[in-house]
């Protein structure tokens, strides 16, 4: 009998692909055969920016997402519609092609929990199945709570909040504003409809799975795991290969910033990065730039080519050249592990949140959409390792607010002390006697049976 052959299917977005590549590499190192499925568009992006021998350790393949090459994948409604309507058939064709060939047959499908239809396909074909949540367990708990939220009149049958209010799913869970529910803050009704439909369907699909894995730890989210004890934390995945090159990026990393960081004093640099999808309008972008200038402190700022439109950074760069470094994309794991980093201004994506926590770095929260608001509640209200920004009457985070919050965070050593304490707790979870380590080993044993 050959090695177990695992088909890994991520939701087609960078923040979902990266942690599933991480777990795939962990499995490949243990001798499992991995076939990793991206959409054609994402496959090209990932292959272009691969580092090391990732493409050798795991077999990267692609299927169509039903969208044209020039169409924007940043339109959640259209993209999620394609994911629901086109990808399931393409994945099923891929499975039939692999299992009908001379290669080792697929023995397990490991799917992103946000695409439960992949688990339905596995169940139909009699293949072992496991779901993986690259986000906080709290997001899963929110999804599982949809029927109760409807029954309690908090949302209607389409997921629309009946009124704006703040709720807690349990007394010790993070507070959630109904306008920030993951499906309700995407900017258009079409996106809301598709994402909500996907989450409702996933509640049924998840019943078909043998494992519901999560990139988290009991120490980070005890209340969520109490509400949903069937969710199995195996994180933080990033901690197990902290300084290895990250795979799954859509943009090439600029490692020259690490040399620049080497020249900065310890715990002096403000690091700013908003992930792969956050977009800032010109007014907000300029306020951020002005706030960093007012701060008069070294900073490293990741400015994606598509983060804003029509803004010329040359004059700003000339003024801050002695203390500021701007890159298109950074090797974030290595940046956050660098001793010169003082704090991290983040969009609060779960990957970035975990990476910050894993390095004991205090956080300043700038959530954009989806689960990022839940993560901000964890950072500010539950873990107390960071602060959020307040917006003015126009919805703008002003330069003075940015400067003041950075100074407030760095002027209070308690944030750093709590961040270091949390770092110790979650890194212990992946050590040999740690809970995440034991959970992952149990999963491995199941795969081999």
UniProtKB/TrEMBL annotation:
<dbReference type="InterPro" id="IPR002213">
    <property type="entry name" value="UDP_glucos_trans"/>
</dbReference>
<dbReference type="GO" id="GO:0080044">
    <property type="term" value="F:quercetin 7-O-glucosyltransferase activity"/>
</dbReference>
<dbReference type="InterPro" id="IPR035595">
    <property type="entry name" value="UDP_glycos_trans_CS"/>
</dbReference>
<dbReference type="Pfam" id="PF00201">
    <property type="entry name" value="UDPGT"/>
</dbReference>
<dbReference type="GO" id="GO:0080043">
    <property type="term" value="F:quercetin 3-O-glucosyltransferase activity"/>
</dbReference>
<protein>
    <recommendedName>
        <fullName>Glycosyltransferase</fullName>
        <ecNumber>2.4.1.-</ecNumber>
    </recommendedName>
</protein>
<comment type="similarity">
    <text>Belongs to the UDP-glycosyltransferase family.</text>
</comment>
<keyword id="KW-0328">Glycosyltransferase</keyword>
<keyword id="KW-0808">Transferase</keyword>
């Amino acid at each position: 009998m050959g090695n177990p052959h695992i088909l890994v299917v991520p939701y087609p977005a960078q923040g979902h692909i990266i942690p599933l590549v991480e777990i795939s590499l962990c499995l490949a190192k243990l001798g499992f055969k991995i076939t990793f499925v991206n959409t054609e568009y994402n496959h090209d992006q990932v292959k272009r920016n691969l580092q090391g021998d990732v493409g050798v350790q795991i077999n990267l393949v692609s299927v169509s997402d039903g969208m044209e090459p020039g169409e924007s994948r940043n339109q959640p409604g259209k993209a999620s519609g394609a994911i629901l309507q086109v990808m399931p058939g393409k994945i099923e064709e891929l499975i039939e092609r692999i299992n009908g060939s001379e290669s080792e047959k697929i023995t397990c499908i490991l799917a992103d929990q946000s695409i439960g239809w992949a688990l339905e396909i596995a169940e139909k074909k009699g293949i072992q199945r496991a779901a993986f949540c690259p986000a906080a367990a709290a997001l899963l708990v929110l999804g599982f709570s949809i029927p109760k939220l409807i029954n309690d009149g908090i949302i209607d049958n389409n997921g629309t909040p009946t009124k704006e209010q703040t709720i807690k799913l349990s007394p010790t869970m993070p507070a959630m504003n109904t306008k920030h529910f993951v499906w309700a803050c995407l900017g258009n009704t079409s996106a809301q409809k598709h994402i909500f439909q996907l989450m409702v369907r996933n509640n049924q699909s998840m019943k078909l799975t043998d494992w519901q894995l999560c990139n988290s730890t009991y120490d980070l989210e005890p209340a969520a795991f109490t509400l949903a004890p069937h969710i199995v934390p195996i994180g933080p995945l990033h901690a197990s290969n902290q300084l290895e090159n990250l795979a799954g990026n859509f943009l090439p990393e600029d490692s020259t910033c690490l040399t620049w960081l080497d020249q900065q004093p310890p715990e002096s640099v403000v690091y700013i990065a908003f992930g792969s999808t956050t977009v800032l309008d010109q007014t907000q972008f300029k306020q951020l730039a002005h706030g960093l200038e007012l701060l008069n402190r070294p900073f490293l700022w990741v400015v994606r080519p598509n983060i804003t439109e029509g803004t010329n950074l040359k004059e700003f760069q000339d003024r801050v050249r002695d203390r500021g470094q701007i890159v298109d994309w950074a090797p974030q794991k290595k940046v956050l592990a660098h001793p010169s980093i003082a704090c991290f201004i983040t969009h609060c994506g779960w990957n970035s949140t975990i990476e910050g926590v894993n390095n004991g770095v205090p956080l300043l929260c700038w959530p954009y959409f989806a689960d990022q608001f839940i993560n901000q509640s964890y950072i500010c209200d539950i873990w107390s390792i960071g602060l959020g920004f307040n917006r003015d009457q126009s919805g703008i985070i002003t330069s003075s607010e940015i400067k003041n919050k950075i100074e407030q965070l760095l002027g209070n050593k308690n944030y750093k002390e709590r961040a270091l304490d949390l770092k110790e707790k979650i890194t212990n979870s992946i050590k040999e006697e740690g809970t995440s380590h034991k959970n992952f080993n149990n999963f491995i044993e199941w795969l081999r049976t």
